[in-house]
Amino acid sequence: MTPPHEPENVEVTRQAAPLEIGEKLRRKREGMGLSLEDAAKQLRVDIRHLRALESDDVAGLPSPVFTKGYLRNYARLLELDPDPLVAAFDASQVDRQPPPLSPLTSVRPGPRILGEFPWEKVLTLGGVLVAVLGVAWIGKSVYGLFKSASHEQSVTLPQPGDNSPGLPLTLDIPGTPSAENGGGLTLPPEESGPVTPESDIETTAPELAVEPPAESAPPLRPEATVTLHFGDDSWVELTDAVNTRLMSRVGKAGQTLSVSGIPPISVVLGNAPVVTVEYNGEPVEFRQPRRGQVAKFKLGE
Q1: CA of 153: how far to CAs of 159, 167, 181, 187, 253, in Å?
Q2: Tell me: the pLDDT tens digits for 250-272?
Q3: In contact, 46 and 67? CB cutoff 8 Å
Q4: Per 3-state DSSP, what percentage of the chain is helix, strand, and coil (rounded to 5)?
Q5: 67 contacts: CB under 8 Å, gap ≥ 6
Q6: What is the predicted pLDDT for the residue at 139?
Q7: How far is CA 206 from its chain centroid?
Q8: Are 88 and 20 in contact (CB under 8 A)?
Q9: Is-cis flag, bond preceding 264, omega within 30?
Q10: What is the distance between the alpha carbons of residues 151 and 169, in angstroms, rounded to a whole number?
Q11: Angle, to 10 degrees, between the axis of helix 64-77 and the axis of helix 36-43?
Q12: What DSSP string runs through 268-301?
């Protein structure tokens, strides 16, 4: 008696699941007398995606998230239950997942040996530092000697309150012949002239240029609320007027999400026919895309 081969039967069932999906869709569409072009127009989907679904061409389909959305809408158009078809599609994706990556092992460096320390470089740098400090100390000492020698020369100048204009100005400079003979270097008296009182001098203050105040930035508009209702899975992205990304994620079927931001708010819907939009509690009718299912528009302009 030949024992049963259960693992092989399981594998055949998994591989046959996608074939049942495409065959079931094609037979149902042909039984309803509906052409592939008419189905694509009603769903507003590229005909290549529907042809790939019926022929089980996985390479011609987009990402699994968008593929399941196309599969649900196509099944509803053909009056089929979409849940078994989506479950069969998910099961067919199990064998196509990449193998898990093995974790990387980190290598820690070993202890540093004391004998490998660069003592020669440390000694060289220490010697250079001592030499620089010595040169700086010598330069400071020489500068102090020159400064003290310059203070030994004496200069005699008349006091500001002296009432004897016309006296000669005598400078005693050490080392000159006149200073050794008891004389000095005599300068001619300064001619005195009429002194103008400070009160008669007109002072004019410079005019200061007054700059006009800078224009203040216009006030920001109050925040608005956008609510999204998902009839099926769809990728969404919302950005407000100050370039703040309010949302960037995949909304699941039956889910409701709300965000608030400064209008105008830019909206991008990856699966527009399955998403209902509200702006501040009011429903929004946006233009459906002509090709594909991606819609882009702004709210609160």
Answers
A1: 19, 22, 17, 18, 99
A2: 999 999 999 999 999 999 999 99
A3: no
A4: 40, 15, 45
A5: 49, 53, 61, 89
A6: 84
A7: 48
A8: yes
A9: yes
A10: 20
A11: 110
A12: EESSGGGEEEEETTEEE--PPPSSSS-EEEEE--
pLDDT at 91: 84
CA-CA-CA-CA torsion for 87, 91, 97, 100, nearest 10 degrees? Answer: 100
Give tens-digit pLDDT for 77-116: 988 999 998 888 888 776 555 555 555 555 455 555 555 6
The crossing angle, in degrees rounded to 10, of helices 47-54 and 6-31 is 130
d(CA 283, CA 286): 10
Of the given ranges (16-20, 60-64, 254-258), which has the lowest mean pLDDT? Answer: 16-20
SS3 185: strand
Q: For the residues 180-186, what does the mean pLDDT come to?
A: 51
Kindly state the average pLDDT of the residues 54-74: 87
170 beta partners: 186
Cα 30 from Cα 54, distance rounded (Å):
11
> Smallest Cα–Cα separation from 297: which of 207, 226, 233?
226
Q: Taking a C-beta distance cutoff of 8 angstroms, is the pair 263, 224 a contact?
A: yes
Contact indicator for 188, 240 with CB cutoff of 8 Å: no
**C-beta separation of 86 from 21 below 8 A:** no
Q: Yes or no: say if 268 and 294 are a contact pair by the CB < 8 Å rule.
A: yes
Tell me whether residue 206 is exposed, middle or buried, using C-beta atoms within 10 angstroms of its C-beta: 0 to 12, 13 to 18, 19 or more.
Answer: exposed
Sign of CA dihedral 37, 42, 45, 51: negative
Reduced to 3 states, what is the DSSP secondary structure of residue 117? coil
